[in-house]
Design a protein that fits this description.
By secondary structure, chain A is of the alpha+beta class. Chain A has 6 helices and 10 strands, in the order E-H-H-E-E-E-E-H-E-H-H-E-E-E-H-E. Chain B has about 160 residues and is α/β, with parallel strands linked by helices. The chains are: A alpha+beta (about 220), B alpha/beta (about 160).
Chain lengths: ~220, ~160
């Protein structure tokens, strides 16, 4: 029987990489910023929620809009834009897509860019109430390593990477007795939001089943 | 158990930053008398102090989450909002609990409402071993730390165990 877990932290990230970077989005972006402010109006964006990022490489710089009521941010730069939502769940997925679409349509239209690929990631902290989290992670131990010592195992982590997919399983450093999972998948720029959501949902179900856990909701 | 990999496990967004908009604003029509220029600094900074206090509280709750499993049955965030000293006490208790019960033990938090309508916070040790070992460990925890501190909780916090 699956172990019941709560999910106190869940984060979704969606990065849209443009087919070609547009440097105008870095140096001449006043109109885009102004229109994004309008586009995010329904989510009560305020002037202090807008942050200009000037640190790092040019590909990391841009303008970030925060929507505190939705714990969501949208960052656009010269090569990509990125939506991040904390406290994500599938009930709020449609709203998350609406926020992403409002931001992306504005950037794509005014910035004259096209989606080349979607890089998506969902990170979760799973918290079993009774079972020590290490017991959930033990099946992921590399068996040749286990025999190297007879003392109890304190922590386990695993990362597997494929061409357009990656899964990380680790102990949580944010919640007590927690398991951290992160599953990433890359999609072509031509796929729909619904296709992405359906695939990510399937990935989540598959991984939770593999861990033999089930979300316990109040 | 902590994370092994050097990997960001958070979004990087800080949602505890005090809001830009103040909670109370004087109406523009309100006349400011001559005494307003002598307003005590503490009062003038009240909004920023409240926001900072709230951010500190949120940070402390996040720290408590790193040591205790929050029950989904009770609204612990609301309970902590009305019992502001308890998060600090729980963080102080953590090394003493680990010493008494072992580092791999799971500690749960629950705040059920009893028949009379009052609410108490229970820090529950999920104990997989014999009951007698749990009793001895709890006695050790009580005698070596909790009994000296217990008054600070004003009767709102109880440490106990549950056999699993």
């Amino acid at each position: 029987m699956p172990e019941l877990v709560s999910i106190p932290i869940a984060i979704v990230e969606i990065v849209i990489e443009y087919v070609r970077p547009n440097m105008k989005l870095l140096v001449d972006r006043a109109k885009v910023v102004d229109q994004l402010f309008e586009a995010f109006g329904p989510w009560n964006v305020k002037i202090d929620d807008v942050e200009v990022l000037t640190d790092g490489k040019p590909s990391e710089q841009g303008v970030k809009f925060k929507l505190p009521a939705k714990r969501t941010s949208f960052l656009f730069g010269a090569a990509s834009c990125k939506l991040t939502r904390d406290d994500a769940d599938w009930e709020s997925a449609e709203e998350t897509i609406r926020i992403l679409d409002a931001g992306w349509q504005t950037v794509a239209t005014l910035g004259d860019v096209e989606a080349g690929s979607y890089k998506t990631a969902i990170a979760m902290h799973l918290q079993p109430k009774i079972l020590p989290s290490i017991e959930i992670l033990k099946p992921f131990l590399a068996s040749p390593l286990v025999g190297l010592s007879s003392s109890p195992i304190k922590a386990v982590a695993a990362v597997v990477k494929w061409d357009k997919r990656r899964i990380t399983v680790d102990g949580s450093n944010q919640v007590a007795n927690g398991v951290f999972i992160r599953f990433e998948r890359q999609f072509e720029g031509s796929v729909s939001y619904d296709q992405i959501a359906t695939q990510l949902r399937a990935d989540e179900d598959e991984l939770l089943a593999l861990l033999d856990v089930k979300e316990d909701r109040p | 158990m902590r994370g092994l990999l050097d990997y960001a496990q958070t979004s990087g967004n800080d949602w505890t930053t005090p809001p830009g908009e103040v909670l109370y604003q004087e109406p523009p029509s309100a006349a400011r008398g001559p005494s307003s220029s002598h307003e005590p600094t503490d009062l003038a900074n009240l909004e920023s102090q409240m926001a900072r206090f709230e951010a500190e509280h949120e940070t402390m709750i996040a720290d408590v989450r790193k040591h205790f499993v929050f029950s989904t049955d009770s609204d612990l965030n609301s309970f902590f909002r009305s019992h502001r000293t308890l998060p600090q006490l729980l963080i102080q208790a953590t090394p003493h609990l680990r010493r008494a019960f072992g580092t791999g033990t799971v500690f749960n938090l629950r705040a059920p409402i009893d028949a009379s309508g009052s609410q108490t916070l229970y820090a529950v040790v999920m104990w997989p071993g014999p009951a007698n070992d749990a009793r001895m460990a709890l006695a050790d925890f009580d005698e070596n730390w909790w009994f000296e501190i217990v008054r600070q909780a004003s009767g709102n916090l109880t440490f106990t165990y549950e056999l699993v």
